[in-house]
UniProtKB/TrEMBL annotation:
It comes from the Bacteria. InterPro entries: MoCofactor_Util/Proc, XdhC_CoxI, XdhC_Rossmann_dom. Residues 16-81 form the XdhC- CoxI domain. Residues 127-261 form the XdhC Rossmann domain. It comes from Bradyrhizobium huanghuaihaiense. This is Xanthine dehydrogenase accessory factor. It holds the Pfam family XdhC_CoxI. PANTHER family: ALDEHYDE OXIDOREDUCTASE MOLYBDENUM COFACTOR ASSEMBLY PROTEIN (PTHR30388), XANTHINE DEHYDROGENASE SUBUNIT A-RELATED (PTHR30388:SF6).
Length: 279
């Protein structure tokens, strides 16, 4: 098996495991370079190269920097490593970006040029649902269609049907979750509200919500505060969950929650896509 095939095999494995990483590919070389076009490397979320190779120290620093940035914003980028005299001819400096290309200086004696495409591969957004209510089951099914990795946690005895989820946990001890942008919804609706809410509070997420009235959430908040749970963590919850669409059925309520999650998920992307002011 060639190194190229081994890298692609590992890409498939890491994607299946819902792990974040960067695939760096040399797309062009000029003159003498350590790596040639087609060379690939996998860069893990901690910045280590776990497989493959895209050259030595001449390119490594620029590629790793671009990889960290790509994992942070989810956007691919092109890195062009060139000797200083060629950068000067182009009228750019090391670290400068132009037309979507980040330029870096090649200080190695070879004085070659390498263009490397840095592509982030992020896990599916994670939706963690606590509860086995009709809203919880509908939310899981709808979220799967929209590409979420769904974890449903509830006592097995509470489940009246097999949930449409990637992972099902018996009870509310969530354990280790995938390293992804995460959304947490408590939809117990009277069955284990307090214990589920405790587990949700302890779970880091970009969005927390509780399917229930403000009055019910206030009552649960008072209990948790008495037991020493951090007030700011509880107040981070949206209650009731979902956009105010006038939803009535479990399916409609689930849809309103997913609409709210989608708005939160896309918030940063919308801001990045806004054109700069011309004023």
């Amino acid at each position: 098996m060639t190194a190229h095939v081994e890298v692609l095999d590992l890409v498939a494995q890491m994607k299946a495991a819902e792990r974040a990483f960067v695939l760096a590919t040399v797309v062009r070389t000029v003159s003498v370079t350590a790596a040639k076009a087609g060379a690939k490397a996998i860069i893990a979320a901690d910045g280590t190269i776990v497989a493959g190779w895209v050259g030595g120290g001449c390119a490594r620093g620029a590629v790793l920097k671009a990889a960290r940035e790509a994992l942070a914003d989810g956007e691919p980028r092109m890195v062009s490593v060139q000797p200083e005299n060629l950068l000067a001819e182009l009228g750019v400096s090391a670290g400068e970006s132009r037309d979507g290309i980040r330029f870096a200086s090649n200080m190695c004696p070879s004085k070659g040029t390498m263009d490397i495409f840095v592509e982030p591969v992020l896990p599916h957004p994670s939706l963690v649902i606590l509860g086995a209510s009709p809203v919880a089951l509908s939310l899981a099914a709808q979220a799967r269609v929209l590409g979420y990795h769904v974890t449903l946690a509830a006592p097995a005895a509470d489940l009246t049907a097999q949930p449409d989820a990637d992972a099902v946990i018996d009870g509310y001890q969530l354990g280790e979750l995938s390293d992804a942008k995460r959304f947490v919804v408590v939809s117990t609706q009277g069955r284990g509200d307090e214990v589920a809410l405790r587990a949700a509070v302890a779970t880091k997420a970009d969005y927390h919500a509780f399917v229930g009235s403000r009055r019910k959430m206030a009552s649960l908040r008072a209990k948790l505060l008495t037991d020493g749970v951090n007030a700011a963590a509880i107040d981070d919850f949206k209650a009731p969950a979902g956009l105010d669409l006038g939803a009535i059925t479990p399916e409609e309520i689930a849809m309103s929650i997913l609409a709210e999650i989608t708005a939160e998920r896309r918030r940063g992307q919308r801001a990045a896509q806004q054109p700069a002011s011309r004023e």
